[in-house]
Model the fold of this input.
Amino acid sequence: MVSGIVTAVLLVVFVAGWIWAWSPRRRQEFDAAARLPLERLEEQGKETRQ
Done:
């Protein structure tokens, strides 16, 4: 009984997190975060060239 309730709660939490992560309002923030490693590599490349 308890394991079924825990499973249901965890499923709801997972689905809520998935909806939160894929909401259009979050896209710009996640796109910026995805570009961070590339921007840091470019900055490091510029520093070594100078």
User: Anything to note?
Assistant: The chain has a mean pLDDT of 89.
